[in-house]
Amino acid sequence: MVLGILTAIAACPAIIGTTEAVRQGQRQNARERHRGLKTKLFVNCSTASTAGREADGCEVVLSDNKLYLAMPSAEYPDGRAEDHPFAGYFLPYPDKNWGRQGEGFVSTISDEPPQLNWIYVDRDTHEVKYGTRAESEPHIIGPWDVTRIDKRVTLEGWEGFMAVRYGPREWALYFDRDDNGLKGIIDPEMRIMEIVLVRRERKQEKPDDDR
Questions:
Q1: Domain presence at residue 75
Q2: Distance from C-alpha of 25 to C-alpha of 27, rounded to nearest angstrom
Q3: pLDDT for 64-106, tens place per residue?
Q4: In terms of domains, do 55 and 115 share one?
Q5: 43 with 93, same domain?
Q6: How far is CA 7 from the centre of its chain?
Q7: Which residues pair with 57 in a beta bridge?
Q8: Are the beta carbons of 59 and 70 closer than 8 angstroms?
Q9: Distance CA 170, CA 133 (A)
Q10: Parent domain of 167
């Protein structure tokens, strides 16, 4: 009996270690499933202004190799026909290994035919863009990741995203890599807003009865 108790006591650390390893594996699997899930991308903006209120909650779209805020307007109440809603996920970038810092980031650029492009930041203009591997390689391609709690998007370990006004209700997505308000990058007369990017799952449609 005593021997059995001693054996059980001796085995406790191994049991606890195994349980913790299983839990770690489960958390890792959940993390990987989250990162590989195709999601939409939305903007949160706390700027106390009319433009800030209009930007808050806007969806991110792709058009002309750049990412924009989908702000409805009188001219385009349902958005522009050429705009493609962001629908993407994290994916290892070829020949890059950032470890736990993150991965590459991709989005569809069309539904028919289905086609993916890499999301990157232009090294010279700091615009957030999309393109092929060859187009993205000379620029800032990652590591992309998310914050632990709210799953807000990060690049190079922090949130430095800005919206820059091109025209009435037309805002493009930028990354303030130098953390100086894009000084020396954009025209000082251009209006900018600090924003955060949030991934959201796409709406689950009713399954096809024929499945």
A1: yes
A2: 5
A3: 999 999 986 555 555 566 799 999 999 999 999 999 999 999 9
A4: yes
A5: yes
A6: 50
A7: none
A8: yes
A9: 27
A10: 38-201
